[in-house]
Amino acid sequence: MTSLTAALPLAVTAAMYWRRSRTLAARGTPVAGWRQASFALALALAIASQLVPFEDELFFAHMLQHVVLGDLAALAFVLGLTGPLLRPILAVGPLSRLRLLAHPLVALPLWAASLYLWHLPQLYEAAIENGAVHALEHLFFFGTGVLMWAAVVEVLPGPEWFGTAAKFGYIAVIRLLGTVLGNVFIWSGDVIYGVYDHGERHGVSPLQDQGLAGTIMMIEGSVVTIGALAWLFLKLAQEGELRQRLLEEGLDPRAVRRAVRYGRGEELEGVR
Predict the structure, then answer these.
(1) How far is CA 7 from CA 38, 48, 63, 69, 105, in A?
(2) pLDDT tens per residue, range 226-236
(3) What is the DSSP string of the chain?
(4) Residue 183 pLDDT more than 80?
């Protein structure tokens, strides 16, 4: 993906975001500063991912590009969004159906399929050798990464059963899928992608290069997973405390459960 190819959609996305943010601020419902900072970080990471040197010659450099774009930038992008920001897009008839893609039972299979299919030798090597296929690969990694994290962060309300406890299992599955692929690269013993035959000029053998790529994938995934699980643990503890307070006030248990599930539990405090 060339820098120009990446810059154009990023510039359009940034312009749409800031325009909508100004509109919401004028209406008295501004987007939180930390969300705007997260969105800016997502754009910066997306740009930085395209500037990784030797990504066509070294597998580990290409893997670094992928984890930055498909995981870190995708997560920062999702954290920068809110329902009001997305409302104009979701108000368009056909586009409103896209919210189904963020359903956990849809987002996770899409993310897993993208991860594994694009790492098949035929598709992966085609992406290295063809700029258009490479751009498509990056689009899939970023897009499915956004959907996968959107199910966890829940910019839009998810299904009632997919509460904080269920998200622990969701994250565990994501970690398992990434771990399996990372271990394949580390321990396979055979070079999987024949296109990386330039590593020797950088002082890295093809097997070392492949092992480094798997290590990068494992380390980045582990750090992000630990952070996500820590956030979910704190959220679960806070929800439990809030739920108990509301039940002690004599409120309807089902109403309490739904309110806490969708982040509106504090609105019920003091109702009775």
Answers:
(1) 18, 11, 21, 14, 32
(2) 999 999 999 99
(3) --HHHHHHHHHHHHHHHHHHHHHHHHTT-PPPHHHHHHHHHHHHHHHHHTT-TTTTT-HHHHHHHHHIIIIIIHHHHHHT--HHHHHHHHTSHHHHGGGGGGSHHHHHHHHHHHHHHTTSHHHHHHHHH-HHHHHHHHHHHHHHHHHHHHHHH-SS---TT--HHHHHHHHHHHHHHHHHHHHHHHH--S-S-TT---GGGGT--HHHHHHHHHHHHHHHHHHHHHHHHHHHHHHHHHHHHHHHHHHHTT--HHHHHHHHHTT-GGGGTT--
(4) yes
pLDDT digits (tens, 9 = 90+) for 98-110: 889 999 999 999 9
Domain extent at residue 170: 3-268
Number of separate domains in the chain: 1
Quote the CA–CA distance of 63 and 164 in Å, as a whole number. Answer: 30
Alpha-carbon distances, residue 20 vs 13, 82, 89, 96 (angstroms)? 11, 11, 11, 18
- Residue carrying the six token digits 């290295």: 128
